[in-house]
């Protein structure tokens, strides 16, 4: 779970780059973890490119932040719009890219909407894959930059009743870990990290139509831990002592047992599913 690279010191922007203005891009910035990460980066002095489908929310967020913000209203479930995002942002000399856009859906695999499944795969996997690859090429050429891929604690296991969502987050986590090792072996200064939170108080459960059985962490607290971990070069960022303990425990459990445990957790969530 932990990388071999020596962590870098998390220092204020001004100390790292003098008077140079640093820039960051955050997808899924209109709400939840993405919005909180944008606020955290703004507090550190980063100008921002804010990306989401809901322009009104992006505009409201931009008005609140003490930095320059550029708004891009895009649907990242569309491959063409993913590539459009890269074309719009590649000339900005970004220091940080946060791939946060994503959503979940709860229900038996055979019963959930195939089209919704495919939209989730395009958003949670394809968009992350495309944007990571394209921006990483630029970052490698400059030998600097940070990419944060927002996975989930779901990325460590299989998830009956949220099978597609868990599978997408497994992909994001394992892709990030693999590419990070490639960067380490080539001696690159580029940092690639995966954020794997547990329940966070966001709109996620409303979209997935479930009710978390455990209390969620505040999005702002999650964002602070995420940005600090990213800038320190941490491989996998799991916010909260309780969730870290749960992840470590899951690694000790036999593979056959984990889906059974997860099924009961998801079934309990569905007790609050909207009718």
Descriptive overview:
With about 280 residues, this protein is of the alpha/beta class. Helices cover about 50% and strands about 10% of the residues. The chain has ten helices and seven strands. It has a seven-stranded parallel sheet, sandwiched between helices. α6 links the parallel β5 and β6. α2 crosses α8 and α5 runs parallel beside α6. It is globular and about 55 Å long. The N terminus is likely disordered.
**Tally of helical segments:** 10
Give the integer mean of the pLDDT values. 87
| Amino-to-carboxy terminus distance | 38 Å
Any idea what the shape is?
Answer: globular
Binned, the helix content reads: 40-55%
Q: Note the main sheet.
A: 7 strands, parallel
Uncertain segments of ≥5 residues (pLDDT<50)? 1-9, 11-17
Q: From N to C, what is the helix and strand string?
A: HEHEHEHEHEHEHHEHH
Secondary structure tally: strands:
7
Strand content: 5-15%
As a whole number of angstroms, the C-alpha radius of gyration is 18 Å
Strand arrangement in the largest pleated sheet = 3-2-1-4-5-6-7
**Structure classification:** alpha/beta
């Amino acid at each position: 779970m932990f990388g071999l690279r020596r962590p870098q010191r998390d220092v204020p922007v001004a100390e790292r780059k003098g008077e140079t203005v640093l820039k960051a891009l955050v997808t899924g910035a209109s709400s939840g973890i993405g919005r909180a990460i944008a606020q955290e980066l703004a507090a550190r002095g980063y100008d921002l490119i804010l990306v989401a489908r809901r322009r009104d929310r992006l505009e409201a967020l931009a008005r609140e932040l003490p930095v320059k913000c550029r708004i891009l209203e895009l649907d990242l479930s569309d491959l063409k719009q993913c590539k459009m995002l890269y074309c719009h942002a590649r000339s900005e000399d970004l220091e940080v890219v946060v791939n946060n856009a994503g959503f979940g859906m709860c229900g038996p695999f055979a019963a959930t909407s195939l089209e919704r499944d495919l939209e989730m795969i395009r958003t949670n996997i394809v968009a992350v894959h495309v944007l990571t690859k394209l921006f990483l090429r630029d970052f490698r050429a400059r030998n600097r930059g940070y990419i944060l891929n927002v996975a989930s604690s779901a990325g460590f296991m299989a998830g009956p009743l949220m099978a597609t969502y868990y599978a997408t987050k497994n992909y994001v986590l394992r892709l990030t870990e693999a590419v990070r090792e490639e960067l380490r072996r080539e001696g690159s200064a580029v940092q690639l990290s995966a954020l794997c939170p547990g329940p966070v108080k966001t709109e996620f459960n409303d979209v997935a139509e479930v009710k978390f059985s455990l209390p969620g962490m505040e999005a702002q607290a999650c964002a602070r831990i995420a940005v600090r971990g990213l800038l320190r070069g941490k491989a996998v960022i799991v916010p909260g002592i309780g969730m870290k303990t749960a992840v470590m425990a899951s690694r000790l459990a036999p593979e056959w047992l984990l889906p059974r445990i997860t099924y009961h957790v998801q079934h309990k969530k569905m007790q609050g599913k909207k009718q």
